[in-house]
Amino acid sequence: MIKTFAAIALLAGTALALNVQGRAADDRLRWFRDAKFGMFIHWGPYALLAGEWNGNKIPIGAEAEWIMHRFNIPVREYREMARGLNPVKFDAERWVGLAKAAGMRYLVITAKHHDGFAMYHSGVSDYNIADWTRFKRDPLKELSEACRKAGIRFGVYYSHREDWDHPDGFGNGWDYPPAGKNFERYLAEKSLPQVRELLTGYGPLGLVWFDRGMDTPEQAGRFVDLVRTLQPQCLINGRVGSYSQELLGDYQDMGDNGMPPGGLDEPWETPQTLNGTWGYSRFDQQWKSAGNVIQRLVEIVSKGGNYLLNIGPMADGTIPAPSVATLEKVGAWMARNGESIYGTTASPLGEAPWGRCTVKGQKIYLHVFHWPSDAVLRVHGIANEVTAAYPLLDPGRKLPVSRSEGAILIAVPERRLDDEDTVIAMEIAGPLKAERAPLVQASDEGFELDYLEARTAGKAMKRFNRDGGFHIAKWTGPEDTASWRLIVGRTGAYRVKIRYAAPKAQAGRTYIVAVGPHEMSAEVRATGDGFQYATFDLGTVTIAKAGTYVVTVRPADAAGRELMYFKSLTLEQAIEPSPIRPEPGAK
Ligand code: FHN
Asked: Ligand 1 centre from 184 Cα, in Å?
């Protein structure tokens, strides 16, 4: 088994994907990058069922808004049920007030979920809250206005592909046999026109949040074009396109409740639940605590992402009390510590034994989840001089700072100042210089060089895709590289193996793996459709001298297509003496 100690610090201020996104996208994304925290709202007729249909219950932890699909409720019956929606307790200002009190800076509500019911006054279909029920109001209009007053960006969720009500929409095979469907008709009759309505009737939108992808890039492109034409400043989330590599929207969404390992080079967001469902279920009372939410928020922000946290209001418009209580507690923490969240960038420092860091220029915010019992906070991996350290809650209280064996030592108060997360602000001289610790061989068996620990250069980018997870992509030419530094203690032969995914179109390109001055080349081989990773043996390399080596992977030459979706490279200590050329020398 191969083990490595990967004490890795990524480069400060991780370069965002300007080369891919372009300046216009960067401009659109500015508010989003600063906002960090948003409210997601799943609200529709399913809230009336609250997780139960004819005695059948949605299991705890499963999605209550999927009830129509789970129990194959006939369209006719679901429509009848939806007539009863009458959210007399709905109060847009109160909802938006809660988002604001929680420290959230944007709000995204389901304009239409998979059940096909519009929660706004649609002219395209009378199957909407204003025409279909006796609640003659338009909640989205009221929310959009309340958001504008409160300075919160307003966004709409729209299920553009999945629609269990429309005979040609995707997903309802119990009323409408798939063979008879004309998906294009659904797009033309309902999906595109409703998105147009949303883009024209609710003022400037912060974003449109599409879900569940689209079958072809061309179809997804129509939604992208519509948004770009009608509201060029409006963001589009990553799920507009198919669940594949190419990002047609402005930023990537993780999978539901997804937490990336870190190191992503693109703007991203993770939609997460407060209990186990998005839509309201009266059975699911497994709520996350405020402390859990705060620490998640910090972890997400420390990795450069946004946290879109869901509430599932009840059918009458009441927000479940546990959600309100949690969000208020989170908000109280945000009111004290928001400076360490908004407008920060990904931390180059990764996880520390005591917590995580966020960064804003020359200020490093140390989020202490686990208070040190000896009242000394040890910070590793920062080369800069520290000019000041103080609790964010008490900036006048300067904390003594010293250095020992490469670590910054901060003498902190005996007790934490904030439950769950006490923030210590640390000011440094000059731009942040994160020390990149080399990978150290943990055993005699070798190294595993993971994509996450690589230093990327050129167009090579650490990405997420909803099919295959995380990897390095976007590299097309020799200047696009992934590299690592190793300290090799044990000399001898190492067997080199590479793990990647490559669809057929990428097969045949040549790539170089350099271990110090020794280069080996190979051709990319197709690993299957989608993002199926496979491991290939590249032979052995002999390292004759102990020392520090740079290992690099790169395309051999320039081409218009991506090289591969790279996962890892392993250098295993070979058992047999190797016939391969001796290493001319270490750097
Ligand atoms: O199917 C939906 C689900 O109901 C919910 O809306 C989530 C939110 O991210 N999105 C889909 C599943 O990924």
From this structure: 23
CA–CA gap between residue 131 and residue 138 (Å, rounded): 10
Cα(172) to ligand 1 centroid in Å equals 16
What are the tokens at 587? 């750097």
Contacts 24+ apart (CB under 8 A), 182-188: 183/215, 187/219, 187/222
Q: What is the pLDDT of residue 7?
A: 30
How far does residue 418's CA lie from ligand 1's centre (Å)?
34
Sign of the four-CA dihedral 284, 290, 295, 296: positive
Give the model's confidence band at 243: pLDDT under 50 very low, under 70 low, under 90 confident, else very high. low
* 211 close to ligand 1 (CB < 6 Angstrom): yes
Domains by residue range for the chain, with CATH: 24-340 (3.20.20.80), 355-428 (2.60.40.1180), 439-573 (2.60.120.260)
Distance (angstroms) between ligand 1 centre and the Cα of 190 equals 20
pLDDT reported for residue 398: 98
Cα–Cα distance for residue pair 523/379, rounded to 1 Å = 43
- What's the pTM value of the predicted model, to 2 decimals? 0.90
**Ligand 1 lined by 253 (C-beta under 6 Å):** no
- For ligand 1, whether the C-beta of 197 sits within 6 Å is no
Q: How many whole angstroms from 113 Cα to the centroid of ligand 1?
A: 9
Give tens-digit pLDDT for 334-373: 999 999 999 999 998 889 999 999 999 999 999 999 999 9
* pLDDT tens by residue, 64-85: 999 999 999 999 999 999 999 9
Distance CA 525, CA 490 (A): 31
CA distances in angstroms from 98 to 274, 311, 455, listed in the order given: 15, 11, 41
- 34 touches ligand 1 (CB under 6 Å): no
Predicted confidence at residue 12, as pLDDT, reads 30
| Cβ(271) – ligand 1 distance below 6 Å | yes
Residues sharing a CB contact under 8 Å with residue 405, sequence separation 6 or more, in sequence order = none
Q: Is the minimum distance from the CB of 257 to ligand 1 under 6 angstroms?
A: no
List, as one string, the DSSP characters of 347-366: -TT--BTTEEEEEETTEEEE
Give dist(CA 149, CA 181) in Å, integer: 43
Sorted by sequence, the CB contacts under 8 Å of residue 493 that are 6+ apart come out as: 540, 541, 542, 573, 574, 576, 577, 578, 580
Task: Report pLDDT for 211.
Answer: 96
* Atom of ligand 1 at shortest range from CA of 162: 1
270 within 8 A of 300, measured Cβ to Cβ: yes
Q: What share of the chain is helix, strand, coil (3-state, %, to 5)?
A: 25, 30, 45
Q: What is the mean pLDDT of the chain?
A: 91
pLDDT for position 585: 46
More confident residue, 17 or 157: 157
pLDDT digits (tens, 9 = 90+) for 520-568: 999 999 998 778 899 999 999 999 998 889 999 999 999 989 999 999 9
Query: Residue whose CA is closest, atom 10 of ligand 1?
Result: 211
Distance 35 CA to ligand 1 centre (A): 22
Token pair belonging to 95: 């909802």
Please give the structure tokens belonging to residue 398: 């300067």
